[in-house]
C-alpha cells in the first residue's frame, strides 16, 4: 500500500501558484458533500463567497463531468455519480481494503463496539474509508468519506506519536480541534508518548461526551502512520479492563496489517516492534 505518511504530496512537489478555478471547484464539491440534500446554486455561491457567475460556470463544468448532478425540477445541485467512480479508483490505488474489512468485522463482533478505519490523507486530515457495526441495539453511524482533524481523539494521539510533526505544529493543530471536553495540551503530549510504549491510545469523553474510542495505527515501511483502526463505544460500557484488552488486540491487528499492506523497512521494523511487542498480551468518532 502506498504510504501517505511522511512528506505529503504537497511537500514533495515544487511550490506553485494555486489555480483559482481548481480551488473553487474543490470548495464546491466539499460544500455539496457536507449538505444533507441538494441546494440551489445561489446558496452555494453565497455560502462560499464566490462570484455568482464564476460559481455557475464551475458548477456547469462539474455537471458536464458528472461530478455534480443538476436537478432540473428543483434547480438544485448535489454530488454526482462521477464522484463515486473517483472515490472507488482512489481506494484501489491506496491498497486493498478488502484485507482490512474482515478485521473490522471480527473486532466489532468480539467486543460489541463499532469499528472504523481512517486513512491519513495529509498532515492535517484523516478520512473514514471503512467501518463495521457492532451486533448490538445501540450503534454509532458515520458515513464513509467523513473527514476529521488528524489529531482528534484516540486516533489523533496515535498519529501524533509517529507523524514526525514538531511540538509547535502539534500544539497549533490541537488548539483548532472542536472537542466536548479536551485535555490540556501537556496531557495530550503525555498520552502521545504513552502510545509509543503501549501501541494504542484511549479517549474517554474528550472528543464527544459519553463516547470512548480506542485506536492503534498501521505504520508504513518507513515507520509513518497512514491508517488508524478505532473502536467506538459508549463510555458507560467501556471499563478499564475492557479498554486495555481492546487496545492490545488492536495492536496485534495493526501489526499484521502493517506487515501485509506496507512491508517493512529497517525503520519500520524497529518502530513496529516497539509499537507492538511491548503492548500488553492477550477510540464530526474514530
Outline of the structure:
This protein has eleven helices and nine strands. The chain has 286 residues and is an alpha+beta fold.
Share of helix among residues? 40-55%
What's the story with the biggest beta sheet? Answer: 6 strands, antiparallel
Largest beta sheet: strand ordering: 6-5-4-9-8-7
- The low-confidence parts are 1-13, 264-286
Radius of gyration based on Cα positions:
20 Å
Kindly describe this structure.
This protein has 286 residues and is of the alpha+beta class. The chain is 46% helix and 18% strand. The strands form two sheets. A six-stranded antiparallel beta sheet has the order 6-5-4-9-8-7. β8 (211-219) and β9 (225-234) form a beta hairpin. The chain is globular.
List the helices and strands and how they pair.
Blueprint: H1 9-12, H2 20-34, E1 39-40, H3 41-48, H4 52-64, E2 68-71, E3 76-79, H5 81-93, H6 101-111, E4 114-120, E5 125-132, E6 147-149, H7 153-162, H8 167-176, H9 185-198, E7 201-204, E8 211-219, E9 225-234, H10 240-261, H11 266-277
Antiparallel strand pairs: 1-3, 2-3, 4-5, 4-9, 5-6, 7-8, 8-9
Helix pairs in contact: 2-4, 3-4, 7-9, 9-11
